[in-house]
Amino acid sequence: MKIFHGSCHCGQVRFAADIDLGAGTIRCNCSICAKLRLWSAIVKPEAFKLLAGESELSQYQFLGKTEQHLFCRHCGVRPFGIGHSPRWGKFYAVNLACLDDVTPEELSDAPITWLDGKNDNWYTPPRQVRQL
Ligand SMILES: [Zn+2]
C-alpha cells in the first residue's frame, strides 16, 4: 500500500488514494472504459480522499446508473469514478493516468485484470485486449 496523489489536467480536482498496485489494476472493454481508454485501480471508499475541487466535478451516468463517472467541468478529465458491484461493494475507480507521483516502473509492474464489461461477463477476460 502506498499513498498516491492525483489530479485532473487543469489541477482544480486533486485527490489522494491508498493503492496497492501489486494487487492488480483493471482494464475493461465496456462502452465507457473503451472510449476513455481507462486504466483503473479499485479502492475502498475509506482509501480515497478528495483534496480539492468537489464543486468543479460534473457527473455522468448511463444505463443502470450504478456508477458515477466524475469529470472536471473545466478540463474534461475523469480522475475517478464511484461505483457499486457484487465483486467490490462500494468502490472508487481511480484513473491511473491521473496519478502525479507514480513512477513508470510502478505502473509497468502493476498486474492487469482484463474485464469483459462489454458482454457483462465480468469473470472471464475478453479474448482481445491489445486494442483497449
Ligand atoms: Zn480540471
UniProtKB/TrEMBL annotation:
It comes from the Bacteria. It holds the Pfam family GFA. The keyword Metal-binding applies. One of its GO terms (molecular function) is metal ion binding. Transmembrane segments: none annotated. InterPro entries: CENP-V-like, CENP-V/GFA, Mss4-like_sf. Keywords: Metal-binding, Zinc. Gene3D superfamilies: 2.170.150.70. Residues 4-124 form the CENP-V/GFA domain. Belongs to the Gfa family. This is CENP-V/GFA domain-containing protein.
